Structure of Mannosyltransferase:
Amino acid sequence: MDCSCSRFFKIYVNIAGYDFLLGTIAAFYVITVPCTKVEESFNVQAMHDILYHWHHLDNYDHLDFPGVVPRTFIGAFLVSIFASPIILVMSMLHFPKIYGLIAVRLALGCIILYTLRFFRIQVRNKFGLQVEAFFVILTALQFHLLFYCTRPLPNILALGIVNLAYGFWLKGNFYAALNCLIFATVIFRCDMVLLLFPLGLELLLTKSISLWKALKCCLGIAVLSIGLTILVDSVMWKKLVWPEFEVLWFNSVLNRSSEWGTHSFHWYFTSALPRSLLAAYPLCILGLFLDRRVLPFIIPVFSFVLLYSKLPHKELRFIISSVPIFNLSAAVAASRIYINRKKAFWKLLSIILLGFLFISLGCTAISFMASFENYPSGYAIKYLHQIGDRTNITEEQWVHIDSFSAMNGISRFCENDFPWRYSKEESIPLKEFHKRNFTYLINEHSFVDGYKCLFIVDGFSRVSPQMSFPPILLIKEPKVYVHGNIKNKDLMNKKWPGCSSGFDR
């Protein structure tokens, strides 16, 4: 009995320690890089409006700026429910809304990491404690999964459901795994169908499920999911809509996603996966040969990435749902190398493994530094508030935010209360701004007639290798300019950093 209790306590401590490690890294990314980009804008604005405007739909951002295709509010509602107690306290204490952005991102991170924990526990039950440990180590040393797990992208909301599907898959509850993927496909990301079909086909071919029972089970959850998203989103969009169907039509039928850029067929395998997996990339291939139990889990996920490669427009976030399974295979390989580390050939592999882990750590540090510099307009509005609030202001301060700035770090969470007011009015010609009564402009232009450049903010441009230490240099260049109306004498009398160089952080 004492041995059982001791073993249970040891496992509990390990699991809690893993949760703390991954959670701390994710929280660090949130606190140091709180701002968001255009890909996250819909859910970020939706969470802001749900938390601050409640039932006043006319004030919601998506009605003025609907985007190319509609998105579901279900994920935003879920995260907002978890974050609402913290937001309520912050509002009572009159905290700036930027802390609300940190709160909702932390809430999302908790949800995603909890689903990853469920998957990780099934990894431990099927492959052992040591494989689970290496799964955590590899995940912690990768940048993208923990950086993105707090970012309210549709892909990340889908990732949470996919993690549950992976967990049920390992657990042997195959119908639950299929139901999770159907829910994720119908509501959050229609492209999850590319994972659903290979997995369902494999389960049918291995006779893990019956076709008739699968159809009955999956059809029911599909109908319920479609009904849920149409009900919720039709109310929020004020029209009859099934968001993910429109996304599917836009991306796959019309193939208009390619308007945002294209990559070659092999890009996911030669660029995206190596960058996201790092040391786990070669290890996951080795894992296929070291443990035959891994292959049935890799085949559907590999097929998912392969099928996705047919779509010309490619982004790393599109295939981020594949990372946990590839990490599982890599963890199996790392565990086997560690077990046999005292044998001659395996000793060499263990040294190589250690080197790979250090390389992963270095690559993650570089990726973090680049990402830290990749939200210039978020820093611009922060500095504008800091300098602009140094004196007592009684008149409204109107800030115009252009499309570039709105896409590179500014959301409604970045806005302050009176006397600050904001406009995202689009399609104003540069030569017309001097006729408008904006106090400040935040945009990508170095000169605007009728305005004086107050300061600029540099942003990440590229990585450059060099012979000295450090071997990698991050190159920055001016990205965002903050201008002041020359007619405003009070503004002109303030001390501003100027535009001779980037703003010193």
In short: The chain has a mean pLDDT of 90. Strands lie at 397-401, 420-423, 440-443, 451-465, 472-485, 498-502. The radius of gyration is 25 Å.
